[in-house]
Amino acid sequence: MRKRGKTDVIEPEIPRKERSTYIPHSFTEVELKNFFHACDSLPSVFHTPEQRSRKITIPVFFRLLYSSGIRTYEARMLRVEDVDLCNGIMNIRHSKGSAQHYIALHDSMNELLKIR
């Protein structure tokens, strides 16, 4: 409208988005081993039911993320009925862009889920 002479309002200038300087880090085998060891070695002090379940869920949660490549949100939205342990398939219903898809579980992850 301003270009046509229909208004005197000046449009505000929108600042450009700064480029990110973040450089992704690929974990080494040693770092991964130490990380999963720390997950498995959580303190055994249980004052609440939530703390008791954390000892089991944290190691499984991070191994699931690592072995499948799913997003944290996708893992948190999983329900028991979304995981088929007989066939080793996960149904990801809540995903980025709302696209439902299936993911095959690694054999070791499938066995870990059966144990837990």
From TrEMBL:
Which branch of life, at top level? Bacteria
Q: Which InterPro entries match?
A: DNA_brk_join_enz, Integrase-like_cat_sf, Integrase_catalytic
Keyword presence, Phosphoprotein: no
Record-annotated Tyr recombinase domain positions: 22-116
**A biological process term (GO) from this entry:** DNA integration
Transmembrane segment boundaries: none
For the keyword Lipoprotein, the answer is no
Q: Which GO terms describe its molecular function?
A: DNA binding
Record's keyword terms, sorted: DNA recombination
Question: Which Pfam families does its entry note?
Answer: Phage_integrase (PF00589)
The name this protein carries in UniProt is Tyr recombinase domain-containing protein
Native organism: Candidatus Magnetoglobus multicellularis str. Araruama
The lineage, from the top, is: Bacteria, Pseudomonadati, Thermodesulfobacteriota, Desulfobacteria, Desulfobacterales
